[in-house]
Amino acid sequence: MTHYLGIDVSTTATKALLVDEAGVIVGIGRSTYGFDTPRPLWSEQDPASWWDATRAAIREVLAVAGIDAADVRGVGLTGQMHGLVMLDDRGGVLRPAILWNDQRTQAECDEIRETVGKHELIRLTGNDALTGFTAPKILWVKHHEPAVFDRTATILLPKDYVRYRLTETLAMDRAGGSGTILFDLARRDWSDVLVHALGIPRTWLPQTFEGTETTGTVSAAAAEATGLMQGTPVVGGGGDQAANGVGVGAVQPGIAAVSIGTSGVVFAPTDHPAVEPEGRLHAFCHAVPGMWHLMGVMLSAAGSLEWFRRVLAPDRSFAEIDAAAGTVPAGSAGLQFLPYLSGERTPHPDPLARGAFVGLTVRHEFAHMARAVLEGVAFGLLDSLRLVQRATQVDEVRASGGGTASRLWLQIIADVLGVPVRPVDTPEGAAHGAALLAATGAGSFVDVAEACSAAVQTATVSEPSEDAALYARAYDTYRQLYPDLRGVFITLSNLDR
Fold first, then answer.
1. Is residue 265 domain-shared with residue 157, that is, in the same domain?
2. What is the pLDDT of residue 103?
3. Minimal CA–CA distance to 75: which of 240, 245, 235?
4. Is pLDDT of 497 > 80?
5. CB atoms within 10 A of CB 101
């Protein structure tokens, strides 16, 4: 049988997922690694760890699935976005990769805004300059490690370094490339204006490809290392959120995706390069050819529930907490929770924002607090969805991540968002999406939408209930809390020594 491989180079592990020609998952391999924090705010990884893990994960999944390498007809790549890999003119790694969650580049973000202009930057790239993105990392190396900067010949993203090791080809997908904020979003390629303004040599930037386009083939050396067949096509793929959008079927306007993991993501495909004028949403190219997407990110979604369990109920399981939350009515008797335990990103890009329970009385018990956490996260997702809905219609939400295990939470989210929420039962959405991009590129499907229609399995939908009206009123109060408490957060941060 024909099979396709999706490889996901994430922050903590590389996953290799095999699908058959119908897009059904037949096996998953996984190899883990860590990352380094050599100084406060820094986050780095050795690119060699990704390649070692890729080799191990591929060999594992081929063995687990019992698939002959000759049956693998295509490979798709996905992974962590925004990381910076710097190569010399012989393809050697010059320094550890600076990751998406590295926070050292605030001065370089300010420099980009001053050089380009904030609103011109947002108009061109769809995004404001934030510390996570790739462009400020390049400027940081220029300012602080000039010897490395001077020796650089190519920059890549993490998954594209794995592409290089697989194919000996320097290439990048357009979904990932747009996350560098060096892209002209509308043109779906590098912005000569930005590159020139920031003093980044254009020759450093590899050729870009759509998610289903072939970027190269598995080399003889990579075939020996991984067990794949030499000559196997490798397609563009996409950044992790774009590939996850494919993995859950969010590939056309009207169907958005919500990820309820440690962080929370609202992802909405568009058929044009829509931009939030103040940069409160990210706007990137989709992994689907000719499509874009808007994305809002909250930093502590299921992470809020994990914190709540760890601090207040370490002897209870998540199922027990969920059951307790289900014993109290919608609105938690006037108790609200702000989920800013790690600061916030959308719509309040504020590292000083803090979590809070607001409205506690002697009537409130553990169950009210548990439900308030679930509701507060749902309100945080609505913050992003409201911004998205100014640019595109949302008729249905596909939900993925650990939070979807709770039917109560899915119902709360449907009531708060005011749209049907359909959970997707895919264990590795990004890797699955990458495999579907490879299958589409190889011709097993007419287009990505057909691939998703055939392969993405959804569970029972949660429709908005009569509680939606109450949540609409409660959200009006929730929206007031951040602006009212922002000054308090600043004061508290100065006391936090």
1. no
2. 87
3. 235
4. no
5. 16
pTM of the model: 0.93
Dmax (CA) for the chain in angstroms is 70
156 and 258 belong to one structural domain: no
The C-alpha atoms of residue 37 and residue 146 are separated, in whole angstroms, by: 21
Q: Report the half-sphere exposure of 56 (CA within 13 A, side-chain side).
A: 14
- What mean pLDDT is reported for the chain? 96
Closest CA to 369 of 359, 379, 380, 378: 359
Question: Which of these, 393, 410, 388, lies nearest to 401 by C-alpha position?
Answer: 410
Quickly list H helices, 393-462: 407-417, 429-441, 448-455
* Residue 477 and residue 373 share a domain: yes
Last residue of a domain, one of 242, 267, 285: 242
Is residue 271 part of the annotated active site? The answer reads no
Strands (E), 132-262: 154-156, 171-173, 183-184, 189-190, 207-209, 214-217, 233-235, 238-239, 254-260
CA-CA distances (angstroms) from residue 182 to 135, 142, 280?
Answer: 7, 16, 18
Q: What gap in Å lies between CA 47 and CA 54, rounded to an integer?
A: 11
CB contact at 8 A, 226 and 218: yes
How does residue 427 score in pLDDT terms, banded at 50, 70 and 90? confident
**pLDDT by residue (tens digit) across 454-467?**
999 999 999 999 99
* DSSP 3-state of 291: coil
CATH of residue 350's domain is 3.30.420.40
433/241 Cα distance (integer angstroms)? 10
Same domain, 221 and 342: no
What number is the average pLDDT over the span 19-42? 93
Distance CA 458, CA 192 (A): 42
- CA distance to 316, 392, 431, per residue, from 284 (Å): 40, 15, 19
What are the distances in angstroms from CA 16 to CA 1, 55, 159, 163, 433? Answer: 18, 9, 12, 14, 12
Q: Choosing from 184, 240, 383, 415, which is the catalytic residue?
A: 240
Q: Would you call the peptide bond into 427 cis, given omega within 30 degrees of 0 as the criterion?
A: no
Give me 362's structure tokens.
Answer: 């002697």
13 exposed, middle or buried (CB, 10 Å; 0-12, 13-18, 19+)?
Answer: middle
